[in-house]
Amino acid sequence: MALPKKTILILLAFFAVYVIWGATYMLNKIAVSQLPPFFLASVRFLVASVIIFIIAKSLGISLAIKKRQLINTSVAGLLFLTLGNGLAVLALKYIDSGFAALEISSQPLVVLIMMRFLHGKKIKAMSYIGVVLGFIGIFLLVSQNEIINKEGQILGMVLIFFCMLCWAYASIFVGKAELPKNHFVNTGYQMLTGGIMLGIVSLCLNEPWSLPNTWRPDVQWSMLGLILFGSIVAFTAFNFLLKEVSPEKVATSTYVNPIIALILGWWILDEFISLQSIFAAAILLTGVYFINTKRVFKPRSIGR
Fold this sequence. Notes:
Blueprint lengths: L4 H27 L5 H22 L8 H25 L5 H8 L2 H13 L5 H18 L2 H4 L4 H24 L6 H22 L12 H28 L2 H4 L2 H16 L6 H20 L10
């Protein structure tokens, strides 16, 4: 018996959120092997924003935005994309994509702690268990001698930590900020402003700019995947799922993305996965599960 059309769409949307978001780490790792990190991220989000605006206009959606909304989308773009994504891509020059995904999977832990200190939000019993497990998992992950002794590994881990701080604060900020109600318009302006700021950072750092025809074929395909699938398809799937299924089910991407990233990094990029990393991942993701059982944290697609 054939599945209902909506069921098929939901399954495809979950596939997009699980696999595409997990694959963005590998795609960024490939692209940053040739392209400067901030230039790479700038091109990705500027092109994606233009495509999103074109789609919105074709659907008859107004792109009008209030001054306060523009300011807030610019702040979100700065935190999520310029600092958050820019630092994550920079970190991928030094650390494996799977390792970066595992470290970033602890983001709900960072959000929880930040909300405790900034807003005095009480941490519930189940979340305390998650916090303890999260710290144990992170310690096991980053304390491996074969990782620490590699050149640039510590710098990469520190960059990922700062990018998580930016994402966490941005997630709290957008929860209360006045933003465009339409998801396409909201994300389009965040990508546009974040992409412009990434371009400015790239110019200030004297990163070499280049045209797509000078890139290696694998870098061209990776950039295409990041723009069309990572920034547009997965985001659309994310918002579709939020309307069709419970937020708790959508939040399961927090657990699946790093596993997908680990598998793809090992399979395609020949990245090494130690037993300690697997053990750390199991403990860390269990901790994230305990945190999300009482306070669901919705993953932000634009930060990936």
